[in-house]
Amino acid sequence: MNTVISFIIIFGALVFFHELGHFIFAKRAGILVREFAIGFGPKIFSYKKGETIYTIRLLPIGGFVRMAGEDPDIPEIKPGHRIAIQFDHGEKVNKIILTGKNRFPNVKVIEVEKADLEHRLIIQGYEEGEEDLLQTFNVSREAIVVEDQVETQIAPWDRQFASKKLSARAMTIFAGPLFNFILAIVAFTLIGIIQGVPLEEAKLGNVLSDGAAQESGLQQGDLVLSIDGSEVNTFTDMTKIVRAHPEEELVFTVERDGKTLDIPVTPKRFVEDDKEIGLIGVQSYLDKSFSKVALSGFIETYHWTIKIFQLLGQLVVGKFSIDMLSGPVGIYKSTEEVAKAGILYLMKWTGLLSINLGIMNLLPIPALDGGRLLFFGVEAVRGKPIDRHKEGLVHFIGFALLMVLMIVVTWNDIQRFFIN
Q1: So which residues are the catalytic ones?
Q2: Residue 176 burial (CB count, 10 A)
Q3: pTM, whole model, 2 decimals?
């Protein structure tokens, strides 16, 4: 149950922050956001506030922000259609009823001659009983279209995604991955605030009560200068030497309170991955100073971003097998292991997954944010957008291929964790 809860919280945070980036910058650009969704598939929860519906959907494989104009979202009103209209106090049409007209009081039923709900915001037609008089009705910018009891707000052209400047559209799409990096920075910074930031130098932090370090007289705050005459510059240098010499006496030269001391230490033997290693029972020194903590989130995010790009490079050149990729099942199992180590490790895991999600979405693959940004780049070069239908077809094919990859990766995860 703890794993399930952890997975739901982590997954929800990753998707929420990603879609929040899209949402905030869409609203800043004046785009009508129809839906903010976590998950795909059937709705299991929905709540409408203002002009946006907030939903949680059944399948935990992502999320989306549905912006006006990206898909056909208003039923087309053609000449000859018989519709009912209601008016606001300013005598503008604020409700357009396509079906179920008898359920609404105080409506006018008209036969449509022409309707423009994007630019001119008018409906022209003949009122029932006055078929010889063509009338023009002005439509409110917030008018609602009702079909089969489903209400949809119209989107004037200036509220649609495609109407905005290229820079605003690009920033709206880029903001999703950007917010994933921000989430990682926040997670790593919180870890720094709670536990402190490990120093690179070989300064001893917590000395465990049952370790060789305490038995030998090493103390928290000791700065290791050398081991058996070999210079030590970082905590990693010290760890490598200790791990390579189980049950062998090593002379630690340390600086303590301005004095230099030589302390013999014999690392205890442990077995790790069928290999004997030495451990002395110390942790790196954790610095909680403001300057270190304030920068820790940015430094860690940068460090892991570079690491992930290096792994992607290995995947491209064939040094990293696709069988090593993980999908939702693999992430769930990894979360199960991380959860056993405690909340700080879960926070770090969240940061790593968030960076992964941000990077993957920036790859120039159709259907991902990076693919859309690539089309914007082509638009900037050409001076005009690519045909929306052609772009939509490319994204559809890309999405289908991604679903195939997801199935393959998920099957590999199932085999790895439940069959083999």
Answers
A1: 19
A2: 26
A3: 0.83
